[in-house]
Write a structure and sequence with these properties.
Blueprint: E1 3-7, E2 19-23, E3 26-43, E4 55-75, H1 85-88, E5 91-96, E6 99-104, E7 107-125, E8 130-149, E9 156-176
Antiparallel strand pairs: 1-2, 3-4, 4-7, 5-6, 7-8, 8-9
Length: 178
Amino acid sequence: MFSGDVELQGGDPQVAGIVLPMQSASVNSDVTTDVVSLMAFYDFYDGLYKPMRTAIPYIGFGIGYANSKTVLNLSDPYGDIAYQLDLTQYGEIVNVNGADMIQFYKSERHTSNFAALLAGGVSYGINERMFLDFGARVMYVPRIKWGLTNVDDTRHREFFSAKNMIYANVMLGIRFEF
């Protein structure tokens, strides 16, 4: 979670200003977000019927529901957070080579949000009802949370969060119109 240089502060002039390299707890995390959305699309073409065998650009926008699942694996490889009382209930104190460390439990958290979506792309008419589609979609999710849990998942603590998440993906598919 922290790796860098720390400048010592204090009243003792012999240590004040000394810079020490320091590393602290580390985090490994996975995030999976499932989205259910309602989208509206607008195809750019002239006339009443879409032309066949022609590239037709489109844009789309929508809103939806996003469920983000975070899996947090926190570790204390240097033993520097082993005695923070507010964290000891989310893991077990183990002794490794004479140093006490917290072995944290694997924690999962679900965060529910609204999502805003914006899409753009090109469709190619194969026949009157079927189109080859190539596009990109950008999704905005306001906040995703990571948390710690105890061994039996009865206690939870929000550990950190990320705000204003932007997801982007590229899509290739077949679109059917009715």
